[in-house]
Design goal:
- This protein is of the alpha/beta class.
- The protein has one domain: 3-Layer(aba) Sandwich (Rossmann fold).
- 39% of the residues lie in helices and 14% in strands.
- Helix 7 (224-241) links the parallel strand 5 and strand 6 (246-252).
- It has helices at residues 26-57, 86-97, 113-122, 139-148, 163-168, 170-191, 224-241, 278-287, 314-327, 346-357, 381-387, 396-409, and strands at 77-81, 101-106, 129-133, 153-156, 195-201, 246-252, 254-256, 293-296, 308-309, 311-313, 332-338, 344-345, 363-366, 424-426.
- It is globular and about 95 Å long.
């Protein structure tokens, strides 16, 4: 855990003003008091003007009695952006389980308020968890969140994250990923938050000539999603050169699975199913939501003609994030691939999904999807050696079986969930 020794400074007490009488005549008294009153009003006007000028040059903390507003020795307060999403919610669950204090910010465009409800029910104690409904593209809202809270670290997950969608809406991806990361960094700089764990992707590598991918593999992304993530990485690295930040960048591969205890899962919006993960499509086909599975691309230079990917269980992924947080140190930058080191083809994945669900899923083979690449899998030796992290949930069929149990128990996702209002904060848009 990161040592915490900072305390929020208390506001200075206001200066008192006193006026004493004299033995002069009442007319003289009135004259003096009039001048004093005018001087007092002028002083107040100057103070207000100076404060306004100061607030425009540097944000000032908003005084609050909330426990989230103060640093506590031995307790690490983590801001989890995108914490209502699939990966972010699992990370928040792990942090809470490990006794971190957690604040989640999410605009719910891809996340689920039901996931927040589950976390609140699991950890109802005061001072453990709070949620802000806000958009990271709203700089004033983001600054308000930082002003009201004493964060020790940020885990930045919030992002749109579909390769196919990024080729159709590139500007949305550059804004949501790259520009919003800049807003988060500016707020961290303004309020002295020194530790960042950044959720990046193997898509920044593009389609390397050799496998497996190491951290030294050239980053040559071939779709807007990967390009936007690489731009965000570059911004983070450039900023960290002139600061004492602790930065950990985790480039992870294809995420599958869900919480082994069945508390959380993946519940993408119906309109996004076309762009979603292959596991979601497999489950939809097994559930009869869609007539069958569409596999895009059978002419890649691989053994069976379909894409090869490195599938990492979400439980292992969040474990890597927590280990990165624990190992983060000032003036240090860590960049790590998070994967199993083993690639499986789409056809292999489909067969594992059939066994996990018990359904003979119908498969339709189509042309390639724009922006996809043939083969991607990791060399995780660096994170193994430096963070003592190793993927443990590597049985593809078992990971899919765990996720399928959650899907069967939540056929409408988090649709029927209701948030618990005491921990829900709705920030107005400015």
């Amino acid at each position: 855990m990161i040592p915490v020794n900072r305390t929020r400074s208390q506001p200075r007490s206001g200066r008192s003003w006193s006026f004493t009488g004299t033995d002069y005549s009442e007319k003289r008294k009135s004259h003096i008091l009039g001048k004093a009153l005018a001087a007092f009003i002028l002083i107040i006007f100057c103070i207000v003007t100076l404060k306004q000028c100061h607030s425009q040059s540097r944000p000032s903390p908003i005084l609050s009695t909330s426990v989230f507003s103060f640093h506590e020795p031995g307790l690490t307060h983590v801001l989890v952006t995108g914490g209502a999403g699939y990966i972010g919610s699992h990370a928040a669950l792990r942090l809470l389980k490990d006794s971190y204090r957690v604040t989640i910010v999410d605009n719910l465009s891809r996340g689920n308020i039901g996931a927040i409800r589950v976390l609140q029910e699991q950890f109802p104690e005061p001072g453990r968890l709070q949620f802000f409904f806000a958009d990271l593209g709203d700089a004033k809202a983001v600054n308000q969140i930082f002003a009201e809270n004493a964060f020790d670290a940020v885990m930045h997950f919030a992002a749109v994250a579909y390769v196919g969608e990024s080729t159709l809406e590139p500007l949305r991806y550059y804004h949501n990923i790259t520009a919003n990361t800049l807003v988060v960094l500016e707020a961290m700089a303004a309020y002295g938050v020194k530790t960042l764990i950044y959720s990046s992707t193997c898509a920044t590598y593009g389609e390397p000539e050799t496998m497996p991918i190491t951290e030294e593999t050239p980053q040559l992304p071939i779709n807007p999603y990967g390009k936007a993530k690489k731009m965000a990485e570059d911004i983070i690295l450039d900023f960290s050169k002139n600061s004492d930040m602790a930065v950990m960048i985790l480039r992870y591969f294809n995420v599958i699975g869900s919480d082994p205890e069945g508390r959380l899962g993946e519940a993408p919006r119906p309109e996004l199913r076309e762009h979603g993960r292959i596991s979601g499509a497999c489950f939809d086909a097994a559930s009869g939501i869609i007539p069958g599975l569409k596999v895009k691309g059978t002419d890649y230079q691989t053994a069976d003609g379909t894409c090869i990917r490195d599938y990492i269980d979400v439980t292992d992924l969040v474990d890597a994030h927590v280990k990165a947080l624990d190992k983060a140190r000032p003036n240090k930058i860590g960049i790590y691939n998070v994967g199993t080191g083993k690639g499986r083809s789409v056809k292999q994945f489909v067969e594992a999904c059939k066994k996990a669900t018990g359904f003979n899923i119908k498969v339709e083979y189509l042309d390639r999807r724009p922006g996809d690449y043939a083969e991607v899998y990791s060399d995780p030796s660096k994170i193994n050696n430096e963070l003592n992290w190793t993927a443990r949930y590597t049985d593809l069929e078992e990971s899919l079986r765990v996720a399928w149990r959650w899907q069967r128990a939540h056929q409408n996702g988090y649709e029927s969930s209701k948030f618990m209002s005491p921990l829900f904060r709705l920030l107005p848009r400015f």
